[in-house]
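Hi there, hope your week has been kind to you so far. No rush at all, and the record is pasted right below.
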Amino acid sequence: MSKVVVYTSNTCPYCTMAKDYLNEKNIAFEEKNVQTDAQARTELMAKGYTGVPVIVVDNEEIVGFDKARLDTLLDK
């Protein structure tokens, strides 16, 4: 089982779509809301990103909600 982390914000529609998609596929994930969690915001910025969603599957980072890439990484 892959470790999945989703960096989100409260107002991001693509974040909601990504979380809904993972829930539909019964994929467990950790949500890190950069709007309410300063540590999460610091982590995301350290990775070089300022926008969300950023989805991390094991060590692979996906910027945005890329369903095809997400499926490929989760099917490994």
